[in-house]
Each structure stands twice: as C-alpha cells, then as structure tokens.
Amino acid sequence: MTSQKLHNVYSAEKFQNAEQLWFWFLYSKSVQSGFSRNPHVATRRVCELLDVETLITKLYLSGDLTNEQLSVMKKFGDRRRAPHQYIWAENRAAALWRSAMETVGDAAKKRGWIE
C-alpha cells in the first residue's frame, strides 16, 4: 500500500452515530446523479454509498430491519430529521426509528464506520 493510499484511509472521517450515517447516505444518493461535487470540498468518509446500501440490505434480508423500520427511515430521512417521540402523531415512528438506528449503529460500529 502506498503512503498516499495510507494517508487517504486514515484521513477519512468516521460518523458520530447511525443517524449521521443514514442522513449522509440519503443525501449523497440524492445528489449522486443530480450534479457533480468538488471532491476536494466534500468530507471523505470511511465507507462508500454502496457499502451502506449493502449493509442496510443485509440487515433487512436477515430480519434485523423490518419493512416498517425501513419505511420510517426513508420517510424521515428524506425530511432530514428523526421523528420526535413527544409529537403524538410521530410517537410510534420514533420508537421504530430508535430501534432501527440501534441496529444500524451496532452493525456500522463493527465495520469501523462509527466512532
């Protein structure tokens, strides 16, 4: 491995939590084909979009994430916010969100993506 490649691997920034990972993934997917970004401006991450997509797919296929959880993750991910447990209409979604983020967070930590 060259010293340049080593530098790039170690300079990649980890995520603080599963929510940050999920929001980054959805945002990056939405702009992926819309316009090209300057690679020197964007923060380099420890994983690629395909890595996150593969992780979510594996968690779903193994039964660790449910259809309901994925639906909540997509709905609120597109809103760029988590559901709020104290808003009555979002109470159930907040519980699903928390359990999904715990599942995703545990799996991402094992891969070294989260601090």
- Catalogue the unreliable spans: 1-9
Helical region count? Answer: 5
| Overall residue-averaged pLDDT value | 86
Number of beta-strand segments: 0
Strand content: under 5%
- Helices and strands, in order, run as HHHHH
Main beta sheet, described?
none
- Termini separation (Å)? 24 Å
State the share of residues found in helices, binned by percent: 55-70%
Class from helix and strand fractions: mainly alpha
**Shape call:** globular
How many separate domains make up the residues? 1
The gyration radius over C-alpha positions equals 15 Å
Q: Summary?
A:
It contains five helices and no strands.
SSE layout and pairings?
Layout: H1 3-11, H2 18-32, H3 49-61, H4 67-78, H5 91-110
Helix pairs in contact: 2-4, 4-5
Task: Please provide a written account of the structure.
The chain has 115 residues and is mostly helical. The protein has one domain. It has 5 helices and no strands. α2 (18-32) packs across α4. The chain is globular, with a radius of gyration of 15 Å.
List keywords for this structure.
mainly alpha; globular; single chain; disordered N terminus; about 60% helix
